[in-house]
UniProtKB/TrEMBL annotation:
Keywords: Electron transport, Heme, Iron, Metal-binding, Photosynthesis, Signal, Thylakoid, Transport. Residues 21-101 form the Cytochrome c domain. InterPro entries: Cyt_c-like_dom, Cyt_c-like_dom_sf, Cyt_C6, Cyt_C_IC. It comes from the Bacteria. Coiled coil: none annotated. Pfam families: Cytochrome_CBB3. Functions as an electron carrier between membrane-bound cytochrome b6-f and photosystem I in oxygenic photosynthesis. It is found in: Cellular thylakoid lumen. GO terms for biological process: photosynthesis. One of its GO terms (molecular function) is heme binding. Residues 1-22 form the signal peptide. GO terms for cellular component: plasma membrane-derived thylakoid lumen. This is Cytochrome c6.
Length: 105
């Protein structure tokens, strides 16, 4: 019985994305969709509204929920990505942005 459970856990673990895989996926999506304006956490349009940790905090964008909302719906010069990216892709981008902000881009 223990072998069966261990085998099932091993098989099941292949279907769950690890944090590293999620970060890699978020990074790929970010590079393909966001890096044109936000390379290395910068902001080419509104230079003070970067994706750096202090700016995210200053503009109340330092949570996954806030970033998901912004990416989904857009705001001012930033286009909405609803329809271009699905919800799991947008969440991966939000997690990536937060992790990169913590690392200091």
């Amino acid at each position: 019985m223990k072998r069966i459970i261990a085998s099932l856990l091993i098989v099941f673990s292949f279907f769950i994305a690890s944090p590293v895989q999620a970060s890699e996926e978020g990074g790929k999506i970010f590079q393909a969709n966001c890096a044109v304006c936000h390379a290395q956490g910068t902001n080419r349009i509104m230079v003070n509204k970067t994706l750096k940790k202090d700016a995210l905090a200053r503009y109340n964008m330092d949570s996954k929920e806030a970033i998901v909302h912004q990416v989904t719906n857009g705001k001012r010069a930033m286009p909405a990505f609803r329809g271009r990216l699905n919800s799991s892709q947008i969440e991966a981008v939000a997690e990536y942005v937060l992790s990169q902000a913590e690392k200091g881009w």
